[in-house]
Amino acid sequence: MCSSDLRAVAISRLKPPSDGVLWDIGAGSGSVSIETAMVSTNLKIYAIEKDPMQIGHIRKNRKKFGAFNVKPIHGEAPDVLLKLPQPDRVFIGGTGGKLKEILYVISDRLNGAGPVIVNATTIDTMNDALRLFETRGFNTDLTTLQVSRSKHIGGKRHLYALNPIFIVTGEKG
User: Using one digit for the tens of pLDDT, what is the confidence trace for 51-106?
Assistant: First the structure.
């Protein structure tokens, strides 16, 4: 799940162009795709998701927000990626344990330098993304985002921290 705070940072790192192709791999409900579509209305966005229930959510959100440049793609990466147009940008929100295979396909098919963004919730995935990017000739950047929310306890406002997210950015060097 991607909160609005995390989406804002991830989308800013994507530097969405006015047109071209974006792959959103492991799109979930499509929040990154939908929000990016509202900023870049001529960008062709492929929201790739293996869970049929989530594909339904993407379709519903696409209609609700008028984000008709988002195309829901039901299937598993990396196999489904071979059938899509070459991307100019890629956002990876989930991999189903196939990060290596997905990044290899991306590095072979990426049109230009990228960027490619990986949102990682574990240190292991963050380390894997950095290593894989570097072995495929990408320049990397790492940002850790820690969000806290407020809640009332005993009549006073307190903050509680959400789990940190590692935003790994790779651009072809």
Answer: 999 999 999 999 999 999 999 999 999 999 999 999 999 999 998 899 999 999 99
CA distances from 73 to 49, 81, 83, 86, 118 (A): 6, 10, 10, 15, 19
Quote the mean pLDDT of the chain: 94
Instruction: Work out the number of other CB atoms within 10 angstroms of the CB of residue 82.
Output: 10
Crossing angle (nearest 10°) for helices 4-14 and 31-39: 50
Instruction: For strands 116-120 and 89-92, give the pairing.
Output: parallel
Q: Which structural domains are found in the chain, ordered by start? A: 4-172 (3.40.50.150)
Angle subtended at Cα 144 by Cα 141 and Cα 40, rounded to the nearest 5 degrees? 70
Instruction: In whole angstroms, give the CA distance from residue 119 to residue 125.
Output: 9
Q: What is the arrangement of strands in the sheet containing 116-120, beginning at the earlier edge strand?
A: 70-74, 42-49, 19-25, 89-92, 116-120, 165-172, 138-145
Which of 13-22, 51-60, 134-143, 145-154 has the least mean pLDDT? 145-154
